[in-house]
Amino acid sequence: MHTLNKFTRWMAACIAVAALSSCANFNNPYGSQHPLAGKVWDVAGGRFVPPEEVIGRAIESKFVLLGEIHDNEEHHRIQSMFVDAMVRNGRKPALVMEQFDVEQQKLMNGIVQGNGSRSEKLRELSKLMRQGWNWPLYQRLVSSALQLKLPLVAANTPREAVREVARNGFDVLGTGEEERLAIDRTWTPERNRQLAQEIAAGHCGKVADHMVQAITKSQRVRDAVMADKMLMARRMGVVGIVGRGHAREDLGVPLYLAARAPEESILSVGMVEVYEPVDPEAYAHSSVGQHHDYLWFTPRPARNSNPCDGIPAPKAETQESS
Question: Does the keyword Signal apply (predicted)?
Answer without folding.
Answer: yes
